[in-house]
Design a protein that fits this description.
single chain; 126 residues; mainly alpha; two-stranded antiparallel sheet
């Protein structure tokens, strides 16, 4: 049974939250896996707010950089693009206000991500 690459990404994010994930060559900016997850979540909220739905097309154009990779991963992992495979066949999307109890330390991870997202919004960064 093959594991979908987004399942691998989820595993890596949950186990290496503070480790470097993406960086731009010769630049000082890098994303940890936790920051990658938060940015993906931020983009998912944006997609929902602007009305992107399953089947809509999204074009991604830009130079090869960490931000491009964040956008790409957010697009392919977006709720409107969910495709269950293998053990993900029962995958569901929930609004942040109605999350079910999560396994392992995922409640804590979501709490931290939501807290960081609120800080970003309150600081006017989005």
């Amino acid at each position: 049974m093959n594991k979908h690459y987004l399942n691998y990404l989820t595993d890596v994010i949950s186990h290496q939250w503070n480790d470097p994930a993406l960086t731009d060559y010769n630049e000082n900016h890098e994303y940890t896996f936790g920051e990658l997850a938060i940015e993906m979540l931020r983009l998912h909220v944006l997609f929902e707010q602007i009305g992107i739905k399953r089947g809509d097309k999204i074009a991604l154009a830009g130079r090869n950089c960490a931000n491009w990779a964040v956008a790409y991963l957010a697009i392919v992992a977006a709720p409107m693009a969910v495709n269950g495979q293998d053990d993900a066949a029962k995958a569901q999307w929930f609004p942040l206000s109605a999350l079910p109890e999560l396994a392992f330390d995922h409640d804590e991870i979501m709490h931290d991500a939501i807290k960081k997202y609120k800080e970003i919004v309150n600081d006017g960064l989005i």
